[in-house]
Amino acid sequence: MEHLINQNVRNITISGIRQFFHLVQQFDDIISLTIGQPDFPTPDHVKESAKKGIDEDFTTYTHNAGFFELREAACQFVHKKYQLEYDPHDEVIVTIGASQAIDITLRTILEPGVEVLLPGPVYPGYEPIIRLCGGQPVHIDTTNNGFKLTASLIERHLTNKTRCIILPYPSNPTGVSLTEDELKEIANLIRGKNIFILSDEIYSELTYSQKHTSIGQFLREQTIVINGLSKSHSMTGWRIGFLFAPKTLAKHILKVHQYNVSCASSISQKAAYEALTAGENDAEKMAVEYKKRLHYVYDRLHHLGIQVIKPDGAFYLFPSIHQFQQSSFDFALELAREARVAVVPGSAFSPYGEGFIRLSYAYSFEQLEEALNRLETYISKKRKLI
Ligand SMILES: Cc1ncc(COP(=O)(O)O)c(C=O)c1O
After folding, report:
1. How far is residue 140's CA from residue 161's CA, in Å, rounded to a whole number?
2. Residue bearing the CA closest to ligand 1, atom 13
3. Using CA positions, which residue lies closest to atom 7 of ligand 1?
4. Tens digits of per-residue pLDDT, 275-321?
5. Helices (H) then strands (E): counts for the chain
6. Residue in 345, 362, 375, 363 with CA at minimum distance from that of residue 121
7. Is 93 buried (19+), middle (13-18) or exposed (0-12) by CB count in 10 A?
8. For ligand 1, what atom is nearest to the CA of residue 240?
9. Domains and CATH numbers, the chain
10. Which uninterrupted H or E stretch holds 357?
11. Residue 209 has what pLDDT?
């Protein structure tokens, strides 16, 4: 019966990150730097509020867009932090992680034949959805542009089929973000055109080198801002994301959301309310820790003679392995087998990720130190062989 499966579904594959994660599980004593998930527990007060929610029978469906106080808290949060103006009545949707926000946005705005511009390398969560909608992903090579998708690069790839531009910043896998000026330039280029911006800001609270700015501030009418609690509050398993869009757009996205999931989990919504109100600055403590780790890993890579761009945020480094003249998959597999360190091959992040590996530093200092010691020994042996 497999021949009856939708052709678009047959054409997509499981994410390369997960595939590689499963592949390296077979090696014992391996240190894995593969997964993009905070290593801190969810803050205690957030966990307590969820328990209270259960005890108080907050266990039924909520409004499709999320319970009102939470929507209000979400709007206040992005207003206070990023000067965004959204109406809690009809311009915000509480979603099942940022993933579902991406899905319902793309399914609302895409049609067969349209093109979606996105940076390369890029998080692998967008391309399959674009393809399921019959759209054409157009990756733009950012490797010679400091991994930044800037206005001039975008301009060269615009066609009359371009429907959407995906901007993830800070970026997974590179950690690079966009500055206020760079975002303004993109906004000026796109303003008035029949093009949407999907602005994935899931790492906004984990920005180290500059204050995070949202393009929603400059191009509100054409932008869908996506954020969530997975990374900022170490809540990946609670599955809470947020989508902000002008009401003319949000009302259509809400229909897709309603028929897709009805609403996000009521208990997780309770926890989210606590996170955004009493815990609005919870990410700060984690960000301080990530920043220390970033400097440590960056310095060690630098010392090893490995080229790497210093990230602005998130918890990834994306070093170049061009000097070893191997595909990123072969390099990562050999590293796992011989040195017992797991990283993600850059090719998991579009063809433009080839020649790089992604290292996550959402791991303890001890794990990072041991992983880098192993990497150092492995690389010095490898250099002698080249
Ligand atoms: C750039 C980016 N967007 C979205 C997501 C999905 O986030 P969530 O777990 O909230 O669905 C991730 C997860 O790694 C990500 O890196």
Report:
1. 15
2. 36
3. 98
4. 999 999 999 999 999 999 999 999 999 999 999 999 999 999 999 99
5. 13, 12
6. 345
7. buried
8. 10
9. 2-41+282-385 (3.90.1150.10), 44-276 (3.40.640.10)
10. strand 357-360
11. 85
